[in-house]
Amino acid sequence: MPWKVLITRKIPDAGLEVLRKNNLQIEILEPGKDNKDIILQSKIGEADALLCLLTDTITSDLVGRAQRLKIIANYAVGYNNIDVPACSRMGIAVTNTPGVLTEATADMAMTLMLSAAKRIVEADAFTRKGLFIGWEPMLLLGADLSGKTLGIVGAGRIGRAVAKRAAGFDMQILYTDRDRVEQIESDFGAQAVDLETLLRQSDFVSLHVPLDDTTHHMINAERLSLMKPGAYLINTARGPVIDESALYHALKNNALAGAGLDVYENEPKITPGLTDLPNVVLLPHIASATVETRNKMARIAAENIVAMYDNQRPPNLINPESLEKGKHVAT
């Protein structure tokens, strides 16, 4: 009997076509129609596979209602929205979409750096309001990237891709990571330092760490106070890595020159006051929002489900221990 795949939001057709080609039944929850969480709770028991978003909170209580569920395919690289240990106990595979977001996210980190340093958002608003009456020597002065020091927090795939781009701007690169990453050193001349040293010495700090207990509020008031008054903080990782209230106060008091954020601590809510500050660029979590990247994400998520349906190990399996339950595929 064909599996039923429950999808929590419309995804690109590239993924839906993969599922349909393999004769899987699809049901897509409609945003704005009642409460999505309530609908998900009522329908999860009918699903053999769940394709969900990072914004969906998949709790142990929810998966406990899903007697038929065999796989959760997260439409994201991160998976902190899913109770993975609970899924493993119940023999439910969890997958993600790694690698595919690297280039788009690195592009966005550089975009935020440039936008904040060059005051692009302020300049655009200034021009649209009809305030531009001619070139002036002191009009909207910003900062150069060339010759400055970039501190990369987390030297994984995305962090290294940002380093590659920063090298093209002749930036000096510092990095901190749990382990030494020789590739970023040999390819881009990056220097490994501890986090405190990185914050003190960097003109730009770009965050590229996963969200877990060790990175929650990694950037707090104390660490923000270590940064140069002329420095910029960029976050395309996860919102809760930054104590957003502390960042607001640092920006308001000009303890930092600026910031660029694509993610937020209590997304989609934004800490009160941030939207009133001119020295922060705020984006609606669109680092991976390119046609090419979102299509690839959809295909990867769908292919993980199809592999499970075909009694194969999903290529992007996060919790191989789930297969030990012998519920659906051979290890």
Element layout with pairings:
Layout: E1 4-7, H1 13-21, E2 25-28, H2 36-43, E3 49-52, H3 60-64, E4 71-74, H4 84-89, E5 93-95, H5 102-117, H6 120-128, E6 149-153, H7 157-167, E7 172-176, H8 182-188, E8 191-192, H9 195-201, E9 204-207, H10 221-224, E10 232-235, H11 244-252, E11 258-261, E12 280-282, H12 291-309
Parallel strand pairs: 1-2, 1-3, 3-4, 4-5, 6-7, 6-9, 7-8, 9-10, 10-11, 11-12
Helix pairs in contact: 1-12, 5-7, 7-8
CATH topology heading of the largest domain: Rossmann fold
Question: What is the alpha-carbon Rg in Å?
Answer: 22 Å
Order of helices and strands: EHEHEHEHEHHEHEHEHEHEHEEH
- Helical element count? 12
Low-confidence stretches: none
Question: How would you characterize the overall build of this protein?
Answer:
- The mean pLDDT is 94.
- The protein folds into two domains: 4-98 and 291-325, Rossmann fold, CATH 3.40.50; 102-282, NAD(P)-binding Rossmann-like Domain (Rossmann fold).
- The strands form two sheets. It has a seven-stranded parallel beta sheet with strand order 8-7-6-9-10-11-12, sandwiched between helices.
- It is elongated.
- With 331 residues, it is α/β, with parallel strands linked by helices.
- 33% of the residues lie in helices and 14% in strands.
- It has helices at 13-21, 36-43, 60-64, 84-89, 102-117, 120-128, 157-167, 182-188, 195-201, 221-224, 244-252, 291-309, and strands spanning 4-7, 25-28, 49-52, 71-74, 93-95, 149-153, 172-176, 191-192, 204-207, 232-235, 258-261, 280-282.
- The longest helix has 19 residues, at 291-309.
- The two termini are 23 Å apart.
- Helix 11 (244-252) links the parallel strand 10 and strand 11.
- The chain contains twelve helices and twelve strands.
